Amino acid sequence: MIGLISCNSGNNSETTTSTDSTKMASDTSSSMNSMNMSSEASMPEVPSGAKVYFKNLKDGQTVSSPVKVEMAADGISVDSAGAVKPNSGHFHILIDAEDSIPMGQVVGKDSSHLHFGNAQQETTITLPAGKHKLALQFADGAHRSYGSKLATTVTINVK
User: Fold this and answer.
1) Phi, psi at residue 29, to the nearest 5°?
2) HEC sequence for the chain
3) Along the 159 residues of the chain, how does pLDDT read in single tens digits?
4) Contacts for 67-72 with beta carbons within 8 Å, 24 or more apart?
């Protein structure tokens, strides 16, 4: 089981996720409160030309575990979760899950949906050998997905 990354824990530079971790994130109360926000507040617009991508991973690439993952965004600011601000949001990594979360839907929080609510742009994930799909999903401060407009997917082979 892949350990969870808490939206409000860790530092901004690197977080480690491990498949053999049994410790669940303990600082979930504040992040869960923001995740339970209703969609009454309108979703911020996706800036024209904005995109998210994996800086260091290419589709079909063979890697060793633990896998270093570098996340990047162009045309939109990477910011901490919490306040919903125009032209900003934070990353989520979906492991062997969907390609993107529908626009406006809150990104779930489990072993397949990792949150980087402290504006982290780098992490290390321990994955078993084999083929894995990683999707990078950008969401607003309330964890509401920007949908497929700000998502990308790569398939990697872990040796």
Assistant:
1) -60, -50
2) CCCCCCCCCCCCCCCEECCCCCCCCCCCHHHHHHHCCCCCCCCCCCCCCCEEEECCCCCCCEECCCEEEEEEEECCEECCCCCCCCCEEEEEEEECCCCCCCCCCECCCECCEEEECCCCCEEEECCCCEEEEEEEEEECCCCEECHHHHEEEEEEEEC
3) 333 333 433 333 333 333 332 222 323 333 333 344 444 468 899 999 999 999 999 999 999 999 999 999 999 999 999 999 999 999 999 999 999 999 999 999 999 999 999 999 999 999 999 999 999 999 999 999 999 999 999 999 999
4) 67/124, 67/125, 67/126, 67/127, 67/156, 67/158, 68/122, 68/123, 68/124, 69/93, 69/122, 69/123, 69/124, 69/125, 69/134, 70/121, 70/122, 71/116, 71/120, 71/121, 71/122, 71/123, 71/136, 72/121
| Cα angle value 149/71/80 (rounded, 5°) | 80
Q: How far apart are CA 30 and CA 28, in angstroms?
A: 6
